[in-house]
Design goal:
It is a single chain. The protein is mainly beta and 70 residues long. Helices cover 14% and strands 46% of the residues. The protein is built from one helix and six strands; from the N terminus they run ββαββββ. The protein has one helix spanning 23-32, and strands at 4-10, 15-20, 35-38, 41-44, 48-54, 64-67. The strands form two sheets. Strands 2-1-5-6 form a four-stranded antiparallel beta sheet, with helices on one face. Strand 1 and strand 2 (15-20) form a beta hairpin. The longest helix has 10 residues, at 23-32. It starts with a strand and ends with a strand.
Length: 70
C-alpha cells in the first residue's frame, strides 16, 4: 500500500508535495509550529494558503482540501 501525500499550497502560487504515512502528524505540525522541516524543505507555516491531501485508492477528484485557519 502506498503512502498518502499532502500538497502544501503557498501564498503566491507555489506548492510543495510531501509523501508520508503520517499525514495527520504533518498537518498537526504545520498548524502548530511557525517553521517545520519536511524532508529537505524548511517551511514557514504562515505562508501556507491551504493543504490538499491525496489518499491511495482515490482519484484526484476525491482530494480533501483543508484550509489553514492559523
Amino acid at each position: 500500500m502506498s503512502d498518502s501525500s499532502i500538497r502544501i499550497h503557498f501564498a503566491g502560487g507555489e506548492s510543495l508535495n510531501i509523501i508520508s504515512d503520517d499525514i495527520q502528524g504533518v498537518i498537526a505540525r504545520l498548524k502548530g509550529e511557525e517553521w517545520v522541516d519536511l524532508n529537505e524543505h524548511h517551511v514557514k507555516t504562515s505562508s501556507i494558503s491551504f493543504f490538499s491531501v491525496y489518499e491511495p485508492g482515490f482519484d484526484k477528484n476525491s482530494e480533501k482540501t483543508i484550509p489553514n485557519h492559523g
